[in-house]
Amino acid sequence: MNKSTENKAIENNPSEKRTPNNRFQKTLVNIDLYLKNGIHIGTKYKNGAMRRFIFKSRSDKLNVMDVQIIDQRIKTSIEFLSKFNPEDVVFVSRKKYALFGLTLLEKTFGYKIKVGRFIPGTFTNPDSEHFMEPKLVFVVDPNIDRQAILEATKIRVPIVALATTSSNVRNIDLLVPFNNKGRKSIALYFWLLNRELQLKNGFIKSEKEYNYKVDDFVITNDDKKDDETRDRKPRPRFVKKPFRK
Fold it and tell me: Own/partner pairs for 62-69, CB < 8 Å, 24+ apart?
């Protein structure tokens, strides 16, 4: 992880500066909404770099991340993203959970998105029809979107990622501790990101003018099933060979 990039991003976000009143700062949404959508629920495994974000381990062995820290990191990620021109940022997600939110970012602001399979060479091969030259890359799941991270590292651009307790966060410049496995939690992040960017860019003047609900960003079960079917590799059929004496 590039600590200098992470530290600069944190320094530019007052909510992340460690003060006695940090725990009492206003969150982007009511804490209950965070808890309802499970943004704090991790996995049963701990990656060393993610231990600092873990609040406790439950009786079922699931690790739970600190909601206040998550909220601070969401704010930091939004501030960091807003410093780049949208056309210079690429959002990458193998999962379709983020599809609605990413499509809205693309249509509203002009961010570039890569949803589904990431084609090798997208960031490194100028001859590829999929070639892009980002100045910032955002990945939804570092464990699944690893190819995008490898290529972004090669071209030396900063990487922002949503990371759960078991995520491989190597080469991530700014990580947001987050439940990146749940469709509702991912929907909430991109609902918030779209809202805050619309406020920052003057598309809306207040939160009340934001015309979307979190449920609008949640992928349906049918969409989830179709997604899993497309990503599943067909199993080779067993061909019975004739018996030879």
Answer: 63/165, 64/40, 65/40, 65/41, 65/164, 65/165, 65/177, 65/178, 65/179, 66/40, 66/177, 67/27, 67/31, 67/34, 67/35, 67/39, 67/40, 68/22, 68/23, 68/27, 69/177
- Say whether 84 sits in a helix, a strand or coil: coil
Alpha helices in the chain (DSSP H): 3-11, 31-36, 67-81, 99-109, 146-154, 183-200, 221-231
The pLDDT tens digits for 139-157 are 999 999 999 999 999 999 9
- CA–CA separation, 69 and 72 (whole Å): 5
User: Residue 47's pLDDT band (boundaries 50, 70, 90)?
Assistant: confident
List the structure tokens of 187: 């929907």
Distance CA 158, CA 106 (A): 20
Give dist(CA 163, CA 166) in Å, integer: 8
